[in-house]
Amino acid sequence: MAHPALTIFLALWTAAPASAATLEDAKDNADNIVQTYVAQLSGGSGAWEVQQRGTNKTLRLTFQSVDKKTVTALGADRFKVYAVFSGEDGQSRSYGEFDIDLGGADWKVDKMRWVNRRDMDAAVKAGEASAKKDVAQRQAAQVKARERKAETAAKRRAAGSAELLAEVDLPTLGSEDASPYYSCAAQRCVDVYVAPWCPHCKNVTPGILKLKEYLKSVGVPMRVTVGMDSEGPVLEYASTFGKDTMLDPGGKAKPATGVPNFCVYEDGGKVVKRLAGESDMSDPKLFAQNELGLP
Question: pLDDT tens across 219-246, in order?
Fold first, then answer.
């Protein structure tokens, strides 16, 4: 499952951590996983011979489908699904509960048990309730996003002639969701923009890491943005700075004054102070105070 903005270089950079499987992944693939499991147990015939509980009767069951309404998350990359089987007469139905694992290269069934119609109906009902809750949460998130967008637009208008950060959304190394580049959750934030090909950026990399740690201790959010290069080098360099590093291979947010570039800004993107070039960062506290005007 590739990052929507970085499909190509996730494939190129094999050291990148794999994204966790989503509920949609499970819904899309549950049929194939369960069908493969049944085929293995039935010797490839697809007719699964099962001893009926409490009798000597053997049932020959054929897998029909997983009811997607029943798919629920159990934990990291693990999901529970309920499947329907038909009997030899084509009319009778049996039901199975499966725990499937979507972690690693081989997706598989971890365990399975037979359930009755009542259990199946309960799973469907619970799934429908969960789906309604998800819709309500998405709608609430959309309303919040619209409010946030309007608030940001007002702040950018209020900035007047002041310099503004680019009004773009960028992905991070640790998330598939793009975030506003100009967003700040505190009174002031710091963005450090670097590029993989920049020798001055590489020279101050240890200082950037120290600065990030120091600013965290005094409550000033700081992030690093890596960009202005092809996807592979961007990802590789970004891994130096952590999962919150923003990725800008296309240079949509590149600073006009060169890199490395240190920017203090307010929510909405109003630039308070900008410093470009290599500096003495041996003491992160002094650098923050003297060069960036921060605590």
Answer: 999 999 999 999 999 999 999 999 999 9
